[in-house]
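We recall that each integer encodes one residue's backbone shape. We quote one record:
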Amino acid sequence: MNVVERYLYPRVESQRIISLILWPISVMMIIQRSLILGVNGHRTDDFTPVYNAAFNFLNRLPVYNENYSTVDPHYLYPPSGTMLMAPLAVLNPEYSRWLFIAASVVVLILCAYLLTRMFGYSYDSWVFPALLLFFFSTETVAHTLIFTNFNGFVLLGMLAFMMLMMRRHDLWAGVAIGLTLAVKPVLAPLLLLVLLNRQWKILVTAIGVPLVLNVLAWPLSKDPMDFVHRTVPYLGESRDYYNSSITGNAAYFGVDSWLAWLLRIAFVVMAVFSLWFLYRYYRRSDELLWLATSSGVLLGTTFLVGSLGQGYYSMLLFPLLMTVFQTGSTMRNWPAWLGVYGCMTFDVFDSKKWEPFGRYLEYNKVPLGWSLLMISVFCVLLFRYLDLREADASGGSVDGGSSDGGSVHDGPVPAA
């Protein structure tokens, strides 16, 4: 290349080009979602009940005295969560909400960075801005900022828990998940993975942190027993609004209870098989793939079969989605990503021309998305199981490795 060509046709690596495209778009999307949509807010306001509870806690007023018969957002955190949220009430409500939005944005950016590093990519690769673009284009992140809730911090605790668990910093891993459990117990199913991996020390702090925080908060609360007598029973109910679980969806559309139970049992059975297969064939050969996929199966199934599943919980499935970059991932098929579109899209399907159909799609896109994603993971693993059985029957040697001890990198690596 001569001098003229070097200046007229400068060479730039393709990854550098991708980063140059993604960074400005990602930054502007973050600004729009936080400074515009977040500050604008919405009629659904998750922050005000939290602020009021924090204010009442600091001023020794009743916290758990809400009317749960209304469809307004309710305060549902235990006394430990109230104590952790109490500093919010030091500022006036508007400034406190803005500060919470800003903190959530920082936390979500940190989550994208941790997810990038967890899967072996550097901060200056195209993966980091791509993740930021994906994060802030989803309904789950957008509504976390617009409604102003705690979900971003739960995702941070989850990623910290997974990274520390894989590095065998067990007590600190327990602290990470324990702090989230002290506020909301959405990550509690992940403790099953701790038991399966025999990292018993994690349970000491995972259970101990929320327990100690509740012991400290209990005498400081005006009405802690009302949380037990009023809030806990409400948490066990399947409400028919803002609820994308199977029972919530069935209650809203008038589906018979027997069909709802049949669907719940079917998804539990699929989850049990998926978790068994992942444990049997992936735990020792690829711990990251096992942990990220199993966590997605556990949480996605919980969202569907539990009493309450809200669309913005979908951000806790980000580690499962990130496995698409790994050999052996269950996310390398189009039905799985159609499911991702359903449970994470920010698109609105309300239609003036086809109002009933548009309303049905709008109210069902999240449960249908979760369902298709869980079914896709199950089918991928089921087909691999059948292939392994066929190979074994034809005389091949099939062994997933012993489940006892050993390095997590020992044993065969299953085919993609």
Remarks:
- The chain is about 65% helix and 0% strand.
- Residues 349 and 355 are 9 Å apart (CA to CA).
- The first helix runs from residue 3 to 8.
